[in-house]
TrEMBL record:
<feature type="region of interest" description="Disordered">
    <location>
        <begin position="1"/>
        <end position="26"/>
    </location>
</feature>
<dbReference type="InterPro" id="IPR044839">
    <property type="entry name" value="NDR1-like"/>
</dbReference>
<keyword id="KW-1133">Transmembrane helix</keyword>
<keyword id="KW-0472">Membrane</keyword>
<protein>
    <recommendedName>
        <fullName>Late embryogenesis abundant protein LEA-2 subgroup domain-containing protein</fullName>
    </recommendedName>
</protein>
<feature type="transmembrane region" description="Helical">
    <location>
        <begin position="41"/>
        <end position="63"/>
    </location>
</feature>
<keyword id="KW-0812">Transmembrane</keyword>
Amino acid sequence: MSDEDRMTLAPTEIYGRSDEEQQNGPKIWRRKTEAPPGNCLVYSLTIIVIVFAVCLILSIIFLRISKPEIETVSISTRDLLFSGNSSNPYFNATLVSDISIRNSNFGAFEFEDSSLRIVYADHGAVGETTIGGRRVEAHKTVRVTGIEAEIGSFRLLNTRGLDSDLRSGFLELTSVAEVRGRIKVMGRRKWKIGVMSCTMRLNLNGRFIQNLLCD
């Protein structure tokens, strides 16, 4: 057999591993199970923000203090007398009112004695009475009944146009009241003033109140 027909089975070159590979061996990749410190900081800040938001929402709901709502529920007349005589026009009557006071807060509302005034058009007050002080519990509505106010034209300094209004059979009146008291919510006390303004028309011939409207 000639030398050309012989096959060389051994590699002509031998590649050895580097010294690093020989010393450290092959690299093995493992999944990391511990979260990096940066992620822990993000989680902590997120929890703090959520807790702060919840506390803020609760404080807005429970600590917000709003003024009480007051309105006239019904009003009637009694002992009505009037005259449209141009030389001596006058009217006298007793108005009997029922009002409601609504407290929408999470704490009780305690108010002092307050005044209720009856005003005739833009001429001024023609009567005044007192609303007795009391306590309205949280999220409750109290109805105060039988509030009597004596009204009369003798209180007016200016009676211009009164005779024509009396002859028409109608008087435009307004009832105005301010109820001032304290509301206590979770240790906080705050003064609040509830304001009522109701317009109405006194029907002289029918002797009743009509078109009652409260703001």
